Amino acid sequence: MKFRDIVNRDIVTLTNCEHEPIHIPGSIQPHGFLIGLNAGLKIEFCTANISSFMDVGYTDLLGKDFSSVFGRRTQEQILDYINNDKIQDVFPLEIIFFGKLFQVSIHKSYGIYVLEAEPKFPDREKLADVYTQTIQFVTQMNNTTSLKDLCALVAQGTREITGYDRVMIYRFDEQYNGEVFAESCREDLEPFLGLHYPHTDIPAQARELYIKNQLRLIVDIEYEPVPIFTVDDERENKNLDLSLSILRSTSPIHVQYLKNMGVGATLTISLIHHDKLWGLIACHHYSKKNISPEIRLAAKLQGQFITSQIDIREANDENLNAKNSSTALEELTGIELPLSEKSLEIIADTPQLLQICNASGAAIIVRDKIYKSGVVPSDEQIMDLIGHIKSRTDDKTFSTNKLSDYYPEMKQSSDFAGIIYHSLDSINHIIWYRHETISEINWGGDPEKAIVKDSNGLHPRNSFNIWKQIIKNQSNIWKQYEINAATKYSHTLHNHLMMIMLSEEEEKYRTQSEILKETNSELENINWISTHDLQEPLRKIQMITSKMLTELDAIPLESISASLVKVSKSAGRMRILLEDILKYTRIKNTRDTLQKVNLNDILKSVKSEMKENIKESNVIIVSENLPEVHAVNFLMKQLFSNIIQNSLKYASEERSPIIKITASQEPELTGHLNKIYCHWVNFSDNGIGFEQQFAETIFKVFTRLHNQNEYTGSGVGLALCKKIMQTVGGAIEAVGKLGEGTDIKIYFPCDPEETLM
Q1: Where is the Histidine kinase domain (predicted)?
Q2: Which helix H or strand E contains 605, and what residues bound it?
Q3: How many angstroms separate the Cα of 639 from the Cα of each of 279, 312, 611, 650?
Q4: What is the pLDDT of residues 383-434, one digit of tens each?
Q5: Which residues of 643-666 are buried (b: 16+ CB within 10 A; e: fewer)?
Q6: Which residues of 455-470 are buried (b: 16+ CB within 10 A; e: fewer)?
């Protein structure tokens, strides 16, 4: 019968080590031996060193039935152990081979039962001792609160149990770069605590094996690999998967790496969290060292203590900050806000907007207007960033702690290294910013020189001197609770914007309804005036002209002249009335065209146009500084002109007319007719006044309180003023005292950009 080994002799270098089949090396470490049984319990594989442990060679075993070599009783023990899943995952099988006691671990590998045997440790620790140590550890563990404290305790406890010179808790980041998170070592050794190691130190296939097999042991770094032999039955690719093996031989690249570090023996325990490799318990010894299966189990339990506590301890570590974030979110969402865009200024001025995710700045973008809080970029940069994000992704959310990777234009700005972005809808957005945090990382050697090239070719780095790296252009990582808080508030803000839009639509419909109601009333009045006020002068004209035509030869020239004067006056009254009707009906809802108007300029212009009337009336106009309001320029001229003309028309004959114009000097919220206004202007005269019961009536179109012969006019002037103020979103009221004078007060709406004191 012919035999051959299954050693993988493919040349492995650092250029192809990422693809090294480390799970099928075809060899083991020499501190034990391996036997592989097929489904029929025939010996399919055997290591060359079995003769070092008993008086039999691999050539005597391969191809034989297991029972024919070791006896039926031994085979039954093996089968009982295989069928007891609860035991084989924890304790090795103690069994006698050829009069010698061994501890055997068994696992199944693609139809092959792999038996790995080590001589029973003569001074092995009792299970009671391990139990006592475990109880002590659990007691101490309960006294720790943070994950870092727990890991430090595990490092110390593992070193006490195993006796290794150095025990490190090694934690991976998202890219599998490692950090020595906790450490316990001999006092004479240089500490590695806080050092970082590049992901290339532990290749992907090695990390995959750490997940499958949670305990890895190298007893002597200087060992010579022992080949595994099998019957040469001419089958191609005949190998043995040793992913779950305790004795599996290690990659020569990894061995050289450890030699470069000066390590003599290692024990590695995987820390699996949510089915992902979270980290390792890495034990180093500076001479060869082996430990019993019981101690291995105790060390493995230490790792399980960590993984079982990761979520709890990380939650404890972040609980206070998360609580503060939650409190800020509750306070922010609990603020009573008006249903207007003014509320966005209130939100931006509220410190909780930044506190909910510990940001240094925030920008709310609504209808192309930006409301800012804290430190934020320029408006142009904000809009450019939004466009950049929308061009890269269709996602409604985006977050990063290194914005320069996606938006290089921000690389030079240390204030905007990280962002959380939420799209509220197609045109509205919110962005939180976080400033740059410059950090220093101490690497165990230059991570860029993990592979060294010299005259001997490529080999692992042999320098582990501390190498400092300065990290710039990135912020602290956004914690999940911060991202969650930002998401929750974005939904709240979106709902608030929807309520604002609904309120605006409701106001628009209400205003349109009022306008329609006013229009219907106006049409009724216009119909009335057309059948009354217009017909009266027409009747006069018709009567006078008819009389003149019938008595033309008998009427003196003076009477003809007087009659024509009367006709002219009647025609003039008709013309004035028609002009006023035309002015009134031309005023439309122009709120969309409102702009800033300086009322001082309006008054100056009106006084200039009315210069002759003012001089003729001998009126004195006294005015304070007038505000800048949100209105329409030409309508304000018409408004001021009508109010002043009204004061002149109804001036008292007993005294010289005086008009005093006062106004609010700063924006102030004023309630009037259940609405809020920001500015007011008051026109006060000393004319004939009116009884207060007519305060509403005087603003109705074509309404007069006096006889046409006493005071001329169409009755449109003040109605025109009211319509102008409605058009700009304002209001007007009149206060009269009969025989003393009249106050006419106008109210202006708030400018969206206006800041209230």
Answers
A1: 529-752
A2: helix 599-609
A3: 78, 71, 17, 17
A4: 888 888 888 777 888 888 888 788 777 666 667 788 899 988 888 999 999 8
A5: bbbbbbebbeeeeebbbbbbbbee
A6: eeeebbbeebeebeee
* 107 Cα distance to chain centroid: 48
Q: Under DSSP, is residue 44 helix (H, G, I), strand (E, B) or coil?
A: strand
Distance CA 585, CA 580 (A): 9
Full DSSP string of 445-497: S-GGGSEEEETTEEEE-----EEEEEE-S--PPPPHHHHHHHHHHHHHHHHHH
Question: What distance lies between CA 70 and its chain's CA centroid?
Answer: 67
List pLDDT tens digits, range 237-273: 788 999 999 999 988 888 888 888 889 999 999 999 8
Only one residue has tokens 């909780």, namely 352
Q: And the tokens for 179? A: 């950090």
Q: By C-alpha distance, which of 207, 226, 180 is closest to 50?
A: 226
The greatest distance separating any two alpha carbons of the chain, rounded to the nearest whole angstrom, comes to 166
Instruction: Return the ∠ at Cα 61 (arms to 56 and 64), rounded to 5°.
Output: 145
Average pLDDT, the chain: 81
Q: What is the pLDDT of residues 513-550, one digit of tens each?
A: 776 776 666 555 555 445 545 555 676 677 777 777 77
Amino acid identity at 450: A
User: What is the token pair recorded at 256?
Assistant: 């050289």
| DSSP 3-state of 751 | coil
Q: Where are the beta strands (DSSP E) in 361-428?
A: 361-366, 369-374, 397-400, 418-423
Phi and psi dihedrals of 515, rounded to 5?
-60, -40
Among 399-403, 466-470, 505-509, 737-741, top mean pLDDT goes to 737-741
> Residue 569 contacts by C-beta under 8 Å, 6 or more apart in sequence?
none
Q: How many angstroms separate the CA atoms of 12 and 466, rounded?
A: 28
d(CA 179, CA 198): 9
Residues 6+ apart with CB under 8 A from 106: 78, 81, 82, 88, 93, 113, 114, 115, 116
d(CA 154, CA 148): 10
> What CA–CA distance (Å, rounded) separates 360 from 352?
11
pLDDT above 80: residue 229: yes
Residue 668 near residue 678 (C-beta atoms within 8 A): yes
| Identity of residue 648 | L
The residue whose two tokens read 């005292």 is 737
Tell the burial category of 142 from Cβ atoms under 10 Å away from its Cβ (0-12, 13-18, 19+): exposed
β-bridge partners, 621: 659
Which one, of 376, 377, 325, lies nearest residue 352 by Cα?
325
In terms of pTM, does the model score above 0.85? Answer: no
CA distance 258 to 637: 90
- Who contacts 568 (Cβ-Cβ below 8 Å, separation ≥6)? none
The secondary structure element, H or E, covering residue 260 is: helix 252-261
Terminal Cα distance for the chain, rounded: 102
Name all domains of the chain by residue range, CATH numbers in brackets: 3-119 (3.30.450.20), 127-226+234-317 (3.30.450.40), 590-757 (3.30.565.10)
Q: Are 14 and 203 in contact (CB under 8 A)?
A: no
> Among the listed ranges 233-237, 245-249, 313-317, 370-374, which one has the minimum average pLDDT value?
313-317
